[in-house]
Every structure is written in C-alpha cells, then in structure tokens.
Amino acid sequence: MEEDGSVFFPHRVMNLLKVFPHVPEKLDQVLCRFSRSCRTPRDSMGQITTDLEECAAAEGWGWGA
Q1: How much is the pTM?
Q2: Banded pLDDT at 5 (limits 50, 70, 90)
C-alpha cells in the first residue's frame, strides 16, 4: 500500500477506492496522480483543472466548462 500514499504527505492514501468504494472512479483517477505510484504526473495546473472539470461533468456536479 506504500505506492498508494501521497507524494506530499506520506501517511495519506491517495487511492481512495481502496478505502471508500463509493468514491467516483474519475475522482480517484485524479487523486491517484498525486500518489507515489503515478507514472504520468501533470505538468501544469491547467491539466489538473481540466481533469477536475471532466470529473465534475461525469458526476453531473455542474462545475467547470
């Protein structure tokens, strides 16, 4: 489970689906980008914002473009 830990905070789990199965998969994918096992990190804040907008749209949260 060490690979599921946060890059920034070693005792925080970023792969929330392992702990909370009701978390939307898209949101879990965004959070996993900040885990130690991530092989494709984001290069800019714009990429993170785009990922979050897609996540919100997929869940019908009405946030984003």
Answers
A1: 0.67
A2: confident
